[in-house]
């Protein structure tokens, strides 16, 4: 029986969990463009008008006083009614936040069921021995990390807190849609602000000049990010270790057979490398102190690249991302240094020249016809593969990363 057969509940439940994870990422990417402007408080006019009404989690300390203040002020009452009119949209944000907590809880429950023998003849180890099972288990952990990163990047922590407080106030406190098990307090604990600042907002702070710039740069630093963020929900340690081990040691998508040339190894394993990068934050001991494992990881996945596409164009620079992780920093600095980068860039430039010349030779008018393609199919496939590998490398490494960790590094 195949792992993903309809009558295999173990495979179907895991497939459903991963499907939900992908749906959540899609919902975050949809909602990011619909955050009500008043909850951003990103200009002086909005701060002056709504600053007293729209609060972050500091509301919980002064809830009664805050409500009395609104009741006693006709102006604040009018603004409160105006904000309350957006409850349907705020509820959609809340449901998205709630689904993130659900996803983590469902995944943890699935792992507990595997460990307890709920699924006959299935354990974590046996699921990881199945090709589809290994892929889905690794993707399940990776997706939760991606969800957290995308959320923090597109919907800043202070905005999340204001939206959650607005839902809490306007929906009647602890009430949650359809009497759901996840209460708002658990969601607040998971999604409270991390302190991370979006690059566009960081650029405004760093552009102030003088002492304000230095003070602003200090406020942008979030030590060991996103380690603490990822640790807010604790998964089974054995599950995390097994997933990281599989991603580190195996070719879970069988890509090496499609990229047989040794120079294309990092491209073949690029999807797996992005998954491993995210999953390592759930296992920070490797990043901090497992020097031998980190050297193995870097040599296998990142020996000739340092910019990683984490998810749909969200790129990170490993040199900055691993700055606060001793073992990881040491491993990446061992292969990504000025002399190595210079040699690598020269090598890629030469390859680009050769590949461009070969491409121009066959795309001339009258050359690339049916007979030519049939006679030289293997050579054309090799050329296409080499072209794609080079194009990918140059696209990633000639532009600024999207998810910036070390904002202060951009200071002049």
From TrEMBL:
What is any one GO biological process for this UniProt entry? endosome fission
In the UniProt record, which is one GO cellular component term? nucleoplasm
Family of this protein: Belongs to the strumpellin family.
This protein is called what?
Answer: WASH complex subunit strumpellin
Protein source organism: Drosophila yakuba (Fruit fly)
């Amino acid at each position: 029986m195949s792992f993903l057969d309809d009558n295999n509940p173990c495979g179907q439940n895991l497939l459903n969990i991963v499907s939900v994870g992908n749906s959540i990422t899609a919902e975050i990417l949809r909602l990011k463009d619909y955050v009500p402007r008043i909850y951003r408080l990103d200009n002086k006019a909005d701060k002056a008008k709504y600053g007293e009404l729209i609060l972050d989690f500091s509301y919980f300390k002064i809830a009664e006083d805050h409500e009395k203040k609104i009741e006693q002020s006709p102006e604040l009452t009018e603004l409160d009614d105006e904000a309350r009119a957006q409850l349907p949209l705020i509820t959609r944000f809340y449901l998205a936040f709630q689904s993130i907590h659900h996803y983590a809880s469902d995944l943890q429950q699935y792992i507990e069921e595997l460990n307890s023998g709920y699924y006959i003849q299935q354990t974590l180890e046996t699921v990881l021995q199945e090709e589809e099972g290994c892929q889905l288990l690794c993707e399940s952990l990776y997706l939760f990390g991606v969800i957290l990163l995308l959320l923090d990047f597109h919907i800043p922590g202070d905005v999340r807190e204001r939206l959650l407080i607005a839902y809490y106030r306007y929906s009647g406190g602890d009430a949650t849609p359809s009497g759901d098990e996840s209460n708002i307090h658990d969601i607040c604990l998971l999604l409270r602000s991390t302190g991370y600042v979006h690059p566009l907002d960081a650029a405004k702070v760093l552009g102030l000049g003088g002492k304000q710039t230095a003070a602003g740069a200090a406020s942008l630093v979030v030590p060991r990010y996103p380690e603490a963020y990822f640790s807010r929900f604790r998964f089974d340690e054995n599950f995390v270790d097994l997933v990281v081990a599989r991603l580190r040691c195996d070719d879970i998508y069988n890509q090496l057979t499609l990229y047989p040339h040794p120079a294309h190894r990092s491209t073949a394993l690029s999807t797996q490398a992005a998954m491993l990068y995210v999953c390592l934050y759930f296992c920070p001991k490797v990043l901090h102190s497992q020097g031998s494992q980190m050297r193995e990881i870097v040599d296998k996945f990142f020996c000739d690249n340092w910019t990683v596409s984490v998810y749909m164009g969200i790129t990170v620079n490993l040199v900055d991302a691993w700055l606060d992780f001793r073992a990881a920093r040491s491993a990446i600095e061992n292969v990504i240094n000025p002399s190595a980068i210079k040699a690598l860039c020269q090598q890629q430039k030469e390859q680009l020249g050769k590949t461009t010349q070969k491409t121009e030779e066959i795309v001339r008018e009258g050359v690339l016809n049916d007979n030519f393609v049939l006679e030289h199919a293997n050579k054309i496939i090799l050329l296409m593969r080499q072209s794609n590998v080079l194009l990918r490398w140059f696209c990633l490494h000639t532009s600024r990363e999207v998810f910036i960790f070390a904002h202060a590094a951009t200071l002049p």
